[in-house]
Amino acid sequence: MAYRNIIFEIEENIGIIKFNRPEALNAINPAVLEEVSDALKQLEADPSVKALILTGEGEKAFVAGADIAHMKDLSPLQAQKWSQEGHRLMFQLEALSMPVIACVNGFALGGGSELAMACDFVYASETAKFGQPEINLGIIPGFGGTQRLSRLVGKAMAKELCMSGVMIDAREAQKIGLVNKVFPPDRLWEETLKTAKLLASKGKVSMRAVKRCIDRGFDLDMNSGCFMESDAFGMCMASPDGKEGMTAFLEKRKPEFKGELE
Ligand code: CO8
After folding, report:
1. d(CA 6, CA 127)
2. Shortest CA distance to 118 belongs to which of 195, 211, 14?
3. Cα–Cα distance measured from residue 134 to residue 239, given in angstroms and rounded to the nearest whole number
4. 66 Cβ contact partners less than 8 Å away, ≥ 6 residues apart
5. Which of 76, 114, 164, 175 is an S-S bond match for 145, by CB 3.0 to 4.6 Å?
6. Between the CA atoms of 152, 158, 162 and 164, what dihedral angle is there, to the nearest 10 degrees?
7. Region of 144 on the Ramachandran plot (φ > 0 left; ψ -120 to 50 alpha; else beta)
8. Rounded CA gap, 243 and 94, in Å?
9. Across the beta sheet with 14-19, what order do the strands follow?
10. Is residue 93 within 8 Å of residue 178, measured between CB atoms?
11. pTM above 0.85, yes or no
12. Catalytic residue list
């Protein structure tokens, strides 16, 4: 597929997707969803790719939300379908076996903040701004914001953000747990890449297992979550990477993870 709304690259073993509609502050329209979804399928099918970074092209925006011009005249059923298409992409991101970092270089509003929340964690520039401004448009978050935000920052804070529609800066977003780390704009990319490389150096089997246990376990009761963790622990223990990691430790050398399951 030819990409017109995103820039898709693989640098060594890191996938990079840049939202690229600067004329609309990288707002998401159906073509963006389709292109990102296609790129994610390619990444998942490529065993050499071990981490993914999502970011926005230009200095102003990560993603300033769903494209309002596209949404304005949707019928209720079309809007419901549009929301479901957004949800599908967020779930596709969460289901990836590799870790995904949102590198938020500017506005992450509405669907943009929802996208960032569907990544494994967020690094942000000091100039980034987050918010769920849908209420100002007479609508509500439709790409999972009412659900992921409350799970991330708690119900009361999620309500305040979704009900007031106000923007918060990166430091505030870090304080409430929406953002992991904040960097000056000129250091954001190198720091994100450094962490992506660190994650890519780990074993694929255990990376996938930790991601699934935390994501799936979050919606389970403690007992069921721990049960799932034991199963995943057993699988990692029996994997070639598990054997290699522990053998390498005892032999005082760096492990060579192959990312295979026998
Ligand atoms: N959609 C379409 N175009 C946009 C969007 C957007 N979300 N955001 C910015 N643009 C466009 C502007 O219209 C403008 O275009 P033009 O130059 O042709 O006039 C261009 O980008 C630059 O924007 P501004 O001139 O407004 O730039 P400012 O620096 O003055 O302001 C802001 C930047 C504060 C980010 C401002 O652009 C803004 O408020 N944007 C809208 C933010 C917003 O409300 N986002 C939420 C959208 S709704 C949503 O995401 C719901 C997701 C779930 C959908 C599910 C559907 C059922």
Report:
1. 22
2. 211
3. 46
4. 27, 28, 29, 82, 86, 110, 111, 142, 143
5. 114
6. -140
7. left
8. 27
9. 6-11, 14-19, 51-56, 100-104, 121-125, 181-183
10. no
11. yes
12. 114, 134
Q: Atom of ligand 1 at shortest distance to CA of 69?
A: 2
For 227-251, the pLDDT digits (tens) are 999 999 999 999 999 999 999 999 9
Q: How many CB atoms lie within 10 A of CB 159?
A: 13
What does the alpha-carbon distance between residue 212 and residue 8 come to, in Å, rounded to a whole number?
A: 25
Q: How many CB atoms lie within 10 A of CB 51?
A: 26
Ligand 1 atom closest to 167 (CA): 34
Position of tokens 């960097």? 183
Residues 20 and 60 sit within 8 Å (Cβ to Cβ): no
Euclidean distance between the first and the last CA atom of the chain, given in angstroms as a whole number: 33
| pLDDT of 262 | 55
Q: Which residues of the chain have pLDDT under 50?
A: none
| Contact partners, residue 64, CB within 8 Å, separation at least 6 | 24, 25, 26, 27, 107, 109, 110, 112
pLDDT at 168: 98
Residue nearest to atom 42 of ligand 1 (CA): 64
Q: Is the dihedral of CA 182, 111, 67, 93 positive or negative?
A: positive
* CA of residue 67 to ligand 1 center, whole Å: 7
110 C-beta closer than 6 A to ligand 1: yes
CA distances from 146 to 12, 113, 132, 232 (A): 36, 11, 9, 30
